[in-house]
């Protein structure tokens, strides 16, 4: 595997995780294979998915993204070069985080991904009906069996996160090494604050989702421009806010000055933030991949980071 400075546990990861939420949804099998080929061919090695993708599509059962990634790996080989991250807790047939549910969901994900281990296994959404002790113990068993290498957490309140980490430390169980949080230039309070503080104290690697705000931070959403996307309504809403417009203005200026695409700058700001190791961004077409990969080459200056931070306040 190529040497990257970005690490999650002992995993060397590319500084941009390719989001698999579109695979089997807005990108069919052929398009998904092409995107994965372009990402891996450009040096990327970190693919993020979940067992529930794309259960929200009529006629889908969930797990389609994992299946496509598994088929791609089987067709292309190179499993040892790739870092696979998936999630548990939201699949229609495996909802929640009871110990038995985690076990069954992990086995199903392994089958769909056609692999013998999951490199990074996240709890997708916290389950308040289950004690953190039960959740961590179930995940720990998977780690001890070699079916999971590292565990991560997403969508959890700070108090439950701290309780989980304390239990792992006290009992010598597997401990979360990564946190996925909604975080980008137009959504900062979803991570900054208690979650970021805990991540810093426990050396958790932040892997932000919605890194491009459902496409808004690509720059394609402009006043009077109609965008054909399943996420257009959600992304376009940011145009109606002063912060959204300010952020776009500064992104445009820096992108023009540096000669790089707008989304590259937005992702580079995330990479410059404390605890962030690799933001997540998805690509529906091959044409969208180069701007994502380019973040590995772009280091914003302190002045550029501050301009974006001020615009997004």
TrEMBL record:
UniProt domain NADP-dependent oxidoreductase: residue ranges: 15-311
One Pfam family name is Aldo_ket_red
SUPFAM superfamilies assigned to the protein according to its UniProt record, in alphabetical order: NAD(P)-linked oxidoreductase (SSF51430)
Name of this chain's protein: Aldo/keto reductase
């Amino acid at each position: 595997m190529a040497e990257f400075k970005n690490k999650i546990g002992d995993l060397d990861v590319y500084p941009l995780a390719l989001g698999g939420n579109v695979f089997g949804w807005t990108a069919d099998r052929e398009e998904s294979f092409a995107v994965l080929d372009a990402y891996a061919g450009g040096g990327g090695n970190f693919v993020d998915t979940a067992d529930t993708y794309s259960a929200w599509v009529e006629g889908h059962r969930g797990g389609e993204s994992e299946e496509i990634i598994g088929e791609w790996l089987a067709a292309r080989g190179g499993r040892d070069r790739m870092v696979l991250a998936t999630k548990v807790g939201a699949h229609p047939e495996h909802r929640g985080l009871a110990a038995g549910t985690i076990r069954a969901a992990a086995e199903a994900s392994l089958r769909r991904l056609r692999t013998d281990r999951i490199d990074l296994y996240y709890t997708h959404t916290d389950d308040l009906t289950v004690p953190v002790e039960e959740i961590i113990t179930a995940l720990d068993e998977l780690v001890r069996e070699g079916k999971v290498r590292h565990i991560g957490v997403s969508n959890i309140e700070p108090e439950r996160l701290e309780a989980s980490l304390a239990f792992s430390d006290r009992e010598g169980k597997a401990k979360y090494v990564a946190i996925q949080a909604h975080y980008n230039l137009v959504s900062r309070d979803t991570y900054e604050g208690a979650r970021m503080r805990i991540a810093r104290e426990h050396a958790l690697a932040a892997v932000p989702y919605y890194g491009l705000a459902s496409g808004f931070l690509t720059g394609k959403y402009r006043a009077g421009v109609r965008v054909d996307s399943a996420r257009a309504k959600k992304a376009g809403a940011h145009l109606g806010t002063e912060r959204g417009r300010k952020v776009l203005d500064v992104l445009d200026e820096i992108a023009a000055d540096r000669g790089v695409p707008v989304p590259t700058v937005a992702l580079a700001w995330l990479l410059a933030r404390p605890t962030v190791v690799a933001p997540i961004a998805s690509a529906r077409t091959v044409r969208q991949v180069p701007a994502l990969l380019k973040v590995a080459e772009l280091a914003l200056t302190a002045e550029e980071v501050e301009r974006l931070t001020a615009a997004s306040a």
